[in-house]
Specification:
By secondary structure, this protein is of the alpha/beta class. It is built from nine helices and 13 strands.
């Protein structure tokens, strides 16, 4: 099976713009901090910009106080962003324009069918319907294999029919999908490098398909390993991971950098967050994470370990 697309290596001619884009469904936890620190330090080490975007597109799942709490924690930990914070809830018109472009190019179709209704088979564009309401919009996925080069995980491939299929870009109940919104905003904000957790790597093929459909160059991807609870689950809001606090910020940052393989000197635990991040920027070695997919979180940040 031939590649549908192979992601190029990072281009030195592209100015670096990175981002951290949390969903306001709860407070940040140690796993969130790892992604924020890795993306921030990678941007600063490459003399780049670092943006923050709040992905608030699903109000029923969101905590009204979470966005403010997230920004407060980032600021307290010295992770100062460039420019204004973007809120996806203010971007519906932009997403509609991208959807209309995909429809006009024959790359999106309305659908009321689930995979169960199709006997478990991929949609492959075969559930077109005449209804104009109570429908989802799906991206028409090509067949074949899509491979891309990840900065930390190497070559990563997906079977587009079996692994991806015709994925939703606007949900039947109204909200925009993560896939369409994130690509629309990454293009609009000029994001050139995406550093995030490997739990999102399966979304990358979908996003690359959208980049190609919109005829836009791809960003460079690097997926860091995820931190695990004592029971092997990843640290996540869904799994009730312990929230970050403003206590012992320098020690927590020091542990995050250690977990990321950066070996900060012990004496930095007593430094300010700014001094720690400056050291990390000057000594950043992302290759320390090459090929790693998961590691236990420090015991103090494991829910069950601390509960015992």
């Amino acid at each position: 099976m031939s590649d549908t697309a192979v992601m190029a290596n990072p281009l030195s001619s592209v100015s670096y713009t990175g981002r951290f884009a949390p969903s306001p469904t709860g407070p940040l936890h140690f796993g969130s901090l790892l992604a924020a620190v890795a993306s921030y330090v990678d941007a600063r080490a490459n003399n780049g910009r670092w943006l923050v975007r709040i992905e608030d597109l699903d109000p029923p799942r969101e905590d009204p106080s979470a966005a403010g709490a997230i920004l407060h924690i980032l600021d307290a930990y010295g992770l100062h962003w460039d420019g204004k914070v973007r809120y996806q809830s203010e971007r519906h018109e932009a997403y509609q324009q991208v959807l209309q472009q995909l429809i006009s190019n024959g790359l999106a179709f309305p659908c009321q069918c689930s995979r169960k209704q199709l006997g478990g088979l991929p949609h492959q564009g075969n559930c077109h319907c005449k209804a104009t309401t109570d429908i989802a919009w799906r991206f028409l996925c090509p067949a074949g294999e899509l491979c891309f080069g990840d900065g930390l995980q190497g070559r990563w491939c997906s079977d587009l029919t079996q692994d991806i299929g015709d994925f939703v870009i606007k949900r039947r109940d109204g909200p925009w999908s993560y896939q369409l919104a994130v690509v629309t905003d990454d293009i609009d904000q000029g994001i050139s490098h995406i550093v995030r957790g490997i739990d999102l790597i399966d979304s990358t093929a979908r996003q690359i398909l959208l980049y190609h459909a919109l005829q836009h160059p791809l960003p460079c991807y690097s997926h860091i390993p995820v931190a695990l609870e004592a029971n092997g689950q990843k640290l996540s809001k869904q799994n009730l991971a312990q929230p970050l606090t403003t206590e012992n910020i320098s020690q927590t940052l020091w542990m995050a950098l250690s977990w990321l393989g950066q070996q900060p000197p012990p004496q930095l635990q007593s430094c300010s967050p700014g001094e720690l991040l400056h050291w990390a920027t000057q000594h950043w070695q992302p290759q320390a994470l090459t090929g790693q997919r998961e590691r236990p979180a420090p015991e103090g940040f494991q829910r069950e370990a601390s509960a015992g």
